[in-house]
Amino acid sequence: MAGRSAVSASGWWLDGVRKWYYSAAGFNKLGLMRDDTIQETEDVKEAIRRLPEKLYNDRMFRIKRALDLNMRQQILPKEQWTKYEEDKFYLEPYLKEVIREKKEREEWENK
């Protein structure tokens, strides 16, 4: 019983740290999501290219708005900040697919 409460307490504490770090990073104050800030390697560029049109357009809107806000040294009103709970890894499935295909291609070339 004591072990179970320790696990849930550490999970609660870790979630609190994650939320604090998410807010401290500051990109959410510009309306960005985590995947909007990922470094654009060749794999990431290919994953972005594969995004459905709506996701791609939403991403471009958020990035352009953030650049404009940054240039004017402003942030969004607090009610428009991206919330930790609402942020999702929209690029992750496409990125995993690109990496899987790349590994598969390398395996075929090595045979």
Automatic annotation (TrEMBL):
Annotated GO CC locations: mitochondrial inner membrane; respiratory chain complex III
GO terms of biological process kind: mitochondrial electron transport, ubiquinol to cytochrome c
Subcellular location per the Swiss-Prot or TrEMBL entry: Mitochondrion inner membrane
The organism's place on the tree of life at top rank: Eukaryota
UniProt family annotation: Belongs to the UQCRB/QCR7 family.
Function: Component of the ubiquinol-cytochrome c oxidoreductase, a multisubunit transmembrane complex that is part of the mitochondrial electron transport chain which drives oxidative phosphorylation.
Record protein name field: Cytochrome b-c1 complex subunit 7
Species, as recorded: Dipodomys ordii
